[in-house]
């Protein structure tokens, strides 16, 4: 169990700040607390509740053994989780009056950023996969059944449509490309131009991008590595290309885990700042071996929140129907893997994985 989940945080509070743990009345995630302030009701929906490490994602119920292990009183401090499609309640009358709103304003369930991002990229049916190229990275897919990774690398979340959202998170995406850009004082356009001057594979330069540790694979104290340096590839452009390819291979590692668990992507939907780069989009298509598209609305999580709110009051359509109607792709930014590409990215992924495991096992990473 990773320390970022809610369960370890509660146990930490009990062990290190017992006086504050003694004051604990109710465990709420941030958006649940906002909904409590708006409605006066305690509620937790399945999607974000599955990120607490306290929920059995198969049964959508709290795991009593875990609650008991943390503290016998914890079960009484958690509300019963409920459907993500059901509203959290209605706005308190006093708040409606203060804000000059009518009575009966519906407050939707809300959810986690990735759960909302899935809705906002119309990743609400099998076959679609979302990849986020932000400071950190995520790659996730819709599933109609629970997805549980025995290796623990894929987080088996519930989504916010009452399906499931198997997800892999990496800590280093634009962190690495921005570090290279700042090293050479480039603009974003100059970074793209430099990457475009170097062939796929960066002439043998492979970059392990763990500049601030890593979550997948689990390397909390990990560091970056440049492997395969020669006099030919020790140039700014090669380093830029290797960084961009390295972080994309990191996401591809997660995509391969999803494929092994039964997820079959027909399309990758790119979001985040990195998706604005044409050269990076092509690298993603080549590395993922799948067509990639971008979306007309860059803020997928915000759009997903709005769609969820719409579905909470316009119930004649499902969230999936509303998302399919509202979310639009950008056709001229769609690209597929190049058939005549001479470089083997699958082999590069195997090499990156093997290097990572070997160095980590020896304590050198």
Written overview of the protein:
This protein has 365 residues and is of the alpha+beta class. The protein folds into 2 domains: 1-108, 2-Layer Sandwich (Nucleotidyltransferase, domain 5), CATH 3.30.420; 112-365, ATPase, nucleotide binding domain (Nucleotidyltransferase, domain 5). Helices cover 40% and strands 14% of the residues. It contains 14 helices and 13 strands. It has helices at 6-16, 18-22, 30-39, 46-49, 64-70, 93-98, 113-120, 174-184, 188-196, 236-260, 278-288, 300-313, 319-326, 345-362, and strands at residues 55-56, 61-62, 89-90, 106-107, 128-133, 137-141, 155-158, 164-170, 206-208, 225-227, 267-271, 292-295, 329-335. A 7-stranded mixed beta sheet has the order 7-8-6-5-11-12-13, with helices on both faces. A two-stranded antiparallel sheet has the order 1-2. Strand 11 (267-271), helix 11 and strand 12 form a beta-alpha-beta unit. It is globular.
Low-confidence segments: none
Content of β-strand: 5-15%
Task: State the shape.
Answer: globular
**CATH-level-2 architecture of the largest domain:** 2-Layer Sandwich
The averaged pLDDT comes out at 95
CATH-defined fold name of the largest domain: Nucleotidyltransferase, domain 5
Q: Can you summarize the main beta sheet? A: 7 strands, mixed
Structural domain count: 2
Strand order of the largest sheet: 7-8-6-5-11-12-13
Rg is 22 Å
Task: Give the CATH superfamily of the largest domain.
Answer: ATPase, nucleotide binding domain
Number of β-strand runs? 13
State the secondary-structure class: alpha+beta
Give the helix level as a range of percent: 40-55%
